[in-house]
């Protein structure tokens, strides 16, 4: 495997992420357009409603997302007296990255994992499990923390929050479309004149949430590769993170009890890995650990 520079890895993943998010925005606008034409006979009104709902959803997530995620994850803020090495490591990485030090939280769980959240480097949270503190050595823990710090520095958290919000919006529009189609007006003449358009719209309403979820997972996987590369750049020691990922892969208790499907993409490794799900490869929020380790070892 050829050696890859940090900057090439970062550039490639950013480019692919922009392509994916553009595709997602297109889905939202297309569904809003169909809802507007079919039910309001005004495409501009439909798109306007979609944009309005998107703004409302985004504002709620933007200003309260970090605190909500910390509460859902049962995270408790770390104190320097109790965890001096953890706090000093985060502080040192913050200085190296040229960003404010985020709040540090600990999740009482034996699994080896960590996450980051927040709307900006000035309003960010880094959380690690007690299992990570117990089972990782210093260079491995530093690699994991650098990965999470990179998510913050690269504004990945804001990016993924936007994707999550838009998925909620797409689901709302799709649900409205399907319910209105079956339980709405029974004007036969109007339905017959729009039968082809209605069928296409209904199919799109059913498929769009599925496609949106696939896009979300693909974006999440891309951002994990980017954070791996950025974290390795920050520590100048890719082996630290690679070794940590190997330990995570061999962890006998990978399931994080406080995690759920809504927050799974925020963690460094899939926190639901211990639960069996259909189509794990297609619907996984994270790339294979083996692949991530190979990329790090090639840097």
Task: Name the features.
68% helix; 299 residues; 11 helices; single chain; four-stranded mixed beta sheet; alpha+beta; elongated
Number of domains: 1
Strand content: 5-15%
Tally of alpha and pi helices: 11
Class of secondary structure makeup: alpha+beta
What's the N-to-C terminus distance? 10 Å
Radius of gyration: 21 Å
Tell me roughly what share of residues is in helical segments.
55-70%
Strand order within the widest beta sheet = 1-2-4-3
Secondary structure: number of strands: 4
Order of helices and strands: HHEHEEEHHHHHHHH
Low-confidence runs of at least 5 consecutive residues: none
Overall 3D geometry? elongated
Rounded mean pLDDT score = 83
Main sheet summary: 4 strands, mixed
Task: Describe, in plain words, how this protein is organized in 3D.
This protein has eleven helices and four strands. A four-stranded mixed β-sheet has the order 1-2-4-3, with helices on both faces. Helices cover 68% and strands 7% of the residues. It has one domain (6-297).
What is this structure's SSE topology?
Blueprint: H1 6-40, H2 43-72, E1 75-77, H3 84-97, E2 103-107, E3 114-120, E4 123-129, H4 130-135, H5 138-153, H6 156-183, H7 188-193, H8 195-235, H9 238-250, H10 280-283, H11 289-297
Parallel strand pairs: 2-4
Antiparallel strand pairs: 1-2, 3-4
